[in-house]
Amino acid sequence: MTLLVAGFAILSVFEQAATRAQDATAVVSAATQHPAEAPFIAENDAAMNKMMKGMDVKPTGDIDADFAAMMIPHHQGAIDMALSELRYGKNEQLRRIAQEIIVEQQQEINAMHLALGQPLPPDAPAPTQVFSNQVTSGQVTSSQSPTTMPDHAMSGHAAMPHDGMSMMPMK
User: Fold this and answer.
1) Is residue 94 part of a domain?
2) What distance in Å separates the CA atoms of residue 59 and residue 65, rounded to the nearest whole number?
3) Is the whole-model pTM more than 0.90?
4) Domain containing residue 139
């Protein structure tokens, strides 16, 4: 019986590796077919991989802690993908939805930490506020738009929620 269980475990590992290889091939193929989307595709792929790895939680016996441990990286993945939409997307409705996702998902991450008695991440500007503040302080030239801003302009995702109205200017 133990040998059978070990066999299934090994098979599962090989299946997961094959799925990851297929996913990587699909990402390269999509970036090749749509070169203008390559940065967006790469960011989203990185966000998905980070999220899936973070959600792979071993049960601790505490259902609530296990739930939060899986959901926090899930929500952070949504935030990371929404940031990519703000960097590269052009549809005004989808960009507004992405802004709302960032605020709402961060609020839920904070609520999960609080529900478990965990400290909140340190205060930091929302990722979308960093760029907005650089524009108003003159640190960003008019030729830089939210879709061409430097990668460091939106780094640091431990943001505290805010009203959602003072975020990155819409295109």
Assistant:
1) yes
2) 9
3) no
4) 37-154
